[in-house]
Specification:
The protein is an alpha/beta fold. Helix content is about 40%, strand content about 20%. A hairpin with a 3-residue loop joins strand 1 and strand 2.
């Protein structure tokens, strides 16, 4: 239950994703505030109750900032004049002429918003500036930003590594010039760069072991075909837990991969990001015998499982047990609250900014890899209904 007493259904969740995209597309004419509930209900042809749920979701995810008696302020970091956006947050009291940068590709989501908040918190504390470059135009524009980094007026940048052609090469050209770089989430293959990551393998291992002990049956894994270190480590954690639990012969049968869409810009909007796991979950749930336990690669995959289960008239927490990864703001507010491995999003950003600042000041000369711990958050989706 949320602080406002609301539970979120799939309709409200999908509409919240659409509104985020609409904000980016400029459908609200660059306004500082969203229209009122009545206007939104008419625009999207839904009830005011649904709109209230949507606004609550967007407030929790940091997309909106609730202002008493004034309405819902659109987070200034997300207000777009076009499909590509630059946000400058400078500190006029800064004694150092240092500005940190962050270059994200794709539409903003709770993960990148949380990391950005952490970077801003450190920059404010340290009295330095911060530029956020959030790009939704596609690979070419991201590479263009990196190629012209000197024109971005930043002293160094935090990057979330991507796998599309030319990305690693663009970072290599910057690294060769000794331009300060710090990665978050995962390192760049072939490059020795400072990185802030989390215990992906350990988090999944602990979640799967919990379900193996709870239900005494194999746990299935649903996720994208691993193509980066984050995805590989999460799957490795799953395999290790299954092996240690005595289900090593079941791993291949219990693995359900779908083609990764991380490098396809058409899947960058959040509502599109959930389509592949939804279709994979729908096909998977039609062929397995319930009850079934599933480790989802992340919370977006878990949301796809929820949607597929709803369509097939299956009940989460009874027919389908689910554990996600990330613990995004919505996890605790779904109709059946989602168990998830919590990533410290804000701390990731804070530590990355601190590391980048130290790199700019010459305080570190060798690449530093820092792995932050994760936390298991157990909710109704992974507990036996008889024990709730």
């Amino acid at each position: 239950m949320t602080a406002t007493g609301m539970k979120y259904n799939s309709k409200a969740i999908r509409l919240s994703d659409v509104i985020v995209r609409n904000i980016w597309e400029g459908q609200f004419d660059g306004a500082k505030y969203l229209p009122g509930e009545d206007a939104l209900a008419r625009k999207y042809e839904v009830s005011r109750t649904t709109i209230r749920r949507v606004l609550d979701i967007l407030n929790r995810e940091g997309v909106l900032i609730k202002k008493p008696n004034r309405g819902s302020l659109i987070n200034p970091d997300l207000r777009a004049q076009s499909s590509s956006m630059e946000v400058l947050l400078s500190n006029p009291l800064s004694l150092e002429k240092i500005t940190l940068g962050a270059v994200w590709a794709g539409f903003p989501d709770a993960m990148t918003i949380g990391i950005s908040d952490g970077i801003k918190a450190y920059a404010t504390e340290a009295g330095i500036g911060f530029h956020l470059f959030q790009n939704v135009e596609g690979h070419a524009k991201v590479l263009e930003d990196l190629a012209h980094v000197n024109e971005l007026a930043v002293s160094g940048i935090v990057v979330l590594p991507y796998n599309f052609d030319g990305y690693a090469e663009a970072l290599l050209r910057l690294a060769v010039r000794d331009f300060p770089l710090v990665c978050v989430d995962r390192p760049v293959k072939g490059l020795e760069l400072p990185c802030i990551e989390v215990d992906n393998a350990g988090g999944v291992y602990r979640a799967v072991v919990k379900m193996l002990v709870e239900f005494r049956r194999p746990v299935y894994y649903l996720g994208a075909e691993p193509e980066n270190d984050t995805q590989r480590l999460r799957y490795e954690g799953y395999c290790r837990a299954m092996n240690d639990g005595g289900f090593d012969r079941e791993v291949e049968k219990c693995t359900c991969f779908y083609p990764s869409t991380d490098n396809r810009p058409e899947f960058w909007p959040v509502e599109k990001k959930q389509e592949p796991p939804y279709w994979a979950a729908l096909e998977f749930l039609r062929r397995v015998e319930c009850p079934v336990s599933i480790m989802a690669m992340n919370d977006y995959v878990a949301r796809g499982i929820y949607r597929a289960a709803e369509e097939l008239k299956l009940r989460i927490g009874r027919d389908v047990m689910v554990f996600g990864f990330d613990d995004l703001p919505l996890a605790s507010c779904l109709e059946c609250p989602l168990s998830s491995v919590r990533q410290p999003r804000r701390e990731i950003g804070y530590e990355a900014a601190k590391l980048l600042h130290e790199r700019i000041l010459g305080k570190i000369s060798r690449p530093v890899i820092k792995c932050l711990p994760v936390e298991l958050i157990e909710r109704a989706s992974s507990r036996s209904i008889d024990k709730k």
